[in-house]
Amino acid sequence: MSGFTAGMLSFAILLALLAARVPIGVAMLAVGSGGFIWIAGLLPYLSFLKTTPFETFASYTLSVIPLFLLMGNVAAGAGLSKRLFAGANALVGHYRGGLAMAAVSACAAFGTICGSSLATAATMGRVALPEMRKYGYAGGLATGCMAAGGTLGILVPPSVPLVIYAILTDQNIAKLFLAAFIPAGLALAGFCFAIRSYVAINPEAGPAAPKLPPSERVAAILATWPVVVIFVIVFVGMNGDFFVGRSLFTPTEGAALGAFLALLAAVTVGGMRTSDIVLSVRATAEQTGMIFLILLGAELYNAFLARTGMPQFAAHWVANLGISPYLIMAVIVLIYILLGCLMDSLSMLLLTIPIFFPIVSGLDFGLTPEQTAIWFGILALIVVELGLIHPPVGLNVYIIHNIARDVSMMDTFKGVVPFLLAEFVRVSLIIAFPSITLALIK
Amino acid sequence: MEMVNASSREPDFLLGRILARVCEALALTGGFLLVGIMLISTFSVIGRSLPELLGAVGVQVPRLGIKGDIELEQMALAVAVFAFLPLCQLQRSNVLVGFFTKSLPVHHRAKFDVAANGLLLLLAVVIAWQLARGALDKLANAETSMVLRIPEWIPYALALPSAWLLVFVTAYTVARSWCEIRSGQAIGPAAAGEPN
């Protein structure tokens, strides 16, 4: 059996195991082990495992993941979400559809201190949904905008999936965060446009909330300062090259400082209790364990896959097809959207990047290799996130549904449609104009 | 698409609930190691940046740092991650693709879970066993870390109890899924992202 056949076969087995309810980390670990033993033999495999699991986990680069998770979990329990919603509401709440726009803006703002979509959807949903329902917002608009807004949690830096992409492809985490900025702004604009269109067609779906007196509005906006301060310190520190011309913190230091400041803000201004802190540590532990098991599986599986030469062969084959690189990109996006019907974003990235990344790197978009890598990373991040809001998996939709039980699942999925349309427009723009993503990258 | 009507889940067995306590305590210990990593890293970044900032306005402060901070963080992270794994397995928080099996009755679905948990059991045994051999190798060769000269077998040994608890917990989850096949009742926590 040639390396290529073995690589393809292993991928087919991996997909079959996934379909049969084997957790993704376990499936990658099992197939990677099988492949390793097939190539190198049982004894070398056993020796390999003496140190590999420990050394995989003992990684300074990877420590950025649990630290950002901790930062997000602390922020979620810290009452900062209420301030952000109140601040955004003071800005736009008095327009028609304004509460919904405030909700998605608050999601984007919360995304600056939280790298997870589910946490953003859940946290902001608990704050914003009752308000929207109080002012008579249609169920579908309220839940749809929260499910969609949740995806901003991942898109706006920091972003855990983007960190994982950076590690898998050996890219600079800070540069990827910087590149995510304009696409995230575009997403927010698209969502607000979707809300405007929704209420233009159904004026009674999103009535305007009463306008607050100016002093209260200013106070509400100023009260968001802890989030602003944390974000500015972490983001400027991590992107020192961009802002002050030399690097200041490593991503791990940025994440650690961010978690520390979030904790500080939570205890001082957020009134967080010790029991809440323990809960956020526990949540971080569970999320980290889940992600690192997949990372270990990916380490083993990718070690095997690289030795079969399958990814390089596939990249070579695709590059010589003579098809427009943009068409190939569109096909990859389509594959992600289909996979998004089955699995979560992290699993998707870890499963596909080792194969897709060499393919994309081999295509000529008229960009430098680094630019291609950054552009593809942002694009992949956006499309894997779409799976969070479209059926059948739509984890964000489930989470929002659990908070707003009075709105049926069907209405929520319907409510998501205008936001999905906005997202498709955005994905097309980002594919067609790589400069949107690359504008801030030097 | 209405959420599948959640069939009632049986609470976990007594052994499962005891294990949950143990796994949770272990995971929290790991979690506080992570908080320790956060503090070390925060201290080193402030100890480095603050003197620079103050220096710019003419105030001289000595730079502070922790010797071997990165090394300590790496060891602590590996020990912490091992401590998180048993809880994930027991609580079914390891993500899986539930799409193809979610409409199956519990006793059919549990057959897949027995196989998947069995597969992990095999892998967990190999990992825990090799980790022990790795620790013995490090001890025999007297390998130490680069900066602080910490014997490397120590963090390996600290990860060992977690690795063997994962083996035990996984064996328990095989049995739990086996009981689900027999009784047709879902037992214990639901899989991540699955309605029931």
Tell me about this structure.
The complex is a heterodimer of chains A (442) and B (196). Chain A is mainly alpha-helical and 442 residues long. Chain A contains 23 helices and no strands. The radius of gyration of chain A is 22 Å and the shape is globular. The mean pLDDT of chain A is 91. Chain B is mostly helical and 196 residues long. In chain B, helix 1 packs across helix 4 and helix 2 runs parallel beside helix 4. Chain B is elongated, with a radius of gyration of 22 Å. The N terminus of chain B is likely disordered. Chains A and B meet through helix 2, helix 3, helix 4, helix 15 and helix 16 of A and helix 1, helix 2, helix 3 and helix 4 of B.
Write the H/E string of chain B, N to C: HHHH
What's the helical proportion of residues of chain B?
55-70%
- Poorly predicted ranges of chain B: 1-6
Percent strand of chain B equals under 5%
Given the helix and strand composition of chain B, which structural class is it? mainly alpha
Assembly state (oligomeric):
heterodimer
Cα radius of gyration of chain A in angstroms: 22 Å
Helix tally of chain B equals: 4
Q: Provide the structure class of chain A.
A: mainly alpha
The description of the largest β-sheet of chain A is: none
How many helical elements of chain A? 23
Biggest interface reads:
A-B, 67 and 66 residues
| Distance, first to last CA of chain B | 15 Å
Proportion in β-strands of chain A: under 5%
Sum up the overall morphology of chain B in one term: elongated
Query: Percent range for helical residues of chain A?
Result: over 70%
Distance between the termini of chain A: 46 Å
Mean pLDDT of chain A: 91
Largest sheet of chain B: none
Shape of chain A: globular
Question: What is the topological layout?
Answer:
The complex is a heterodimer of chains A (442) and B (196).
Chain A: H1 3-19, H2 24-40, H3 42-57, H4 64-76, H5 80-92, H6 98-111, H7 117-134, H8 139-150, H9 152-155, H10 160-169, H11 173-201, H12 214-222, H13 225-238, H14 240-243, H15 251-268, H16 274-308, H17 310-319, H18 325-339, H19 345-361, H20 369-386, H21 395-403, H22 409-432, H23 434-438
Chain B: H1 14-56, H2 69-90, H3 106-140, H4 153-183
